[in-house]
Design brief:
mainly beta; Neuraminidase; four-stranded antiparallel beta sheet; globular; kelch repeat
Length: 226
């Protein structure tokens, strides 16, 4: 029994955020986001295993010093965020736009200014997208392209929303020949083409990794490559 207690204690110790010799060490989590701004990788939210709840934590990894820095304690106010999406934008590409997530929140979009460490709700023109989770997003020349996703009621969204982070305006993207609604997929930007791979459909079936949809940003057109 003594040995079991020691093992369980060590495992629990690894789960929680802690400071070792003054150095912040983040605990285990999933459903968070990561974005690079300058020499820092910012991590937002996720599911904290130790507390069994989503978190509103924001911290970063300094790539120059290989050290973690916790900034949530600086008075940053952000609702619980898990399975959301986030991407950089703004004129100087130093603002992280945080969208959606599983936890009920009447506000779909927040912005985190990495220069001031302030979270705020930006005023955006256009039709605000329906809040959801398990979306994918990429950033291209100040615009964030957000595709599909699902909510906690298992509703899948046939949505392609574009956030112009320079002019602060929502746009509706072209859905002609777009993929079927899906969640938990990936989107990857190569040059000016977004590649959408994998994910799950409403019927519970997984999508073949061989069916790769491409969205040409310059032409605003979709195509399927098998």
């Amino acid at each position: 029994m003594v040995y079991i207690f020691i093992i369980l204690s060590c495992q629990l110790f690894l789960l929680v955020n802690r400071f070792v010799y003054g150095q912040f060490i983040p605990g285990l989590r999933l459903g968070h986001t990561a974005n690079t701004v300058g020499n820092k990788i910012y991590f937002i939210g996720g599911y904290n295993f130790a507390k069994s709840i989503p978190t509103s934590e924001i911290f970063y990894l300094n790539k120059e010093t290989d050290t973690w820095e916790e900034i949530k304690s600086q008075g940053i106010k952000l609702p619980f965020k898990v399975e959301h999406t986030a991407n950089i934008g703004g004129i100087n590409q130093d603002i992280i736009f945080i969208m959606g997530g599983l936890i009920g929140d009447t506000n779909f979009l927040y912005q985190f200014d990495t220069k001031t460490n302030i979270v705020s709700i930006p005023i955006i023109q256009g039709k605000v997208p329906t809040s959801r989770a398990f979306m994918s997003s990429v950033n291209f020349e100040g615009k964030i392209f957000v595709f599909s996703g699902q909510n906690s009621d298992d509703i899948y969204f046939n949505s392609f929303d574009i956030l112009d982070t320079i002019n602060l305006r929502w746009e509706i993207g072209n859905l002609i020949n777009a993929p079927t609604p899906r969640s938990k997929h990936t989107s990857t930007l190569v040059n000016n083409v977004i590649y959408y791979i994998g994910g799950m459909q409403l019927n519970g079936n997984y999508i073949s990794m061989n069916d790769i949809y491409q969205y040409d940003i310059g032409k605003s057109t979709w195509s399927l490559k098998v």
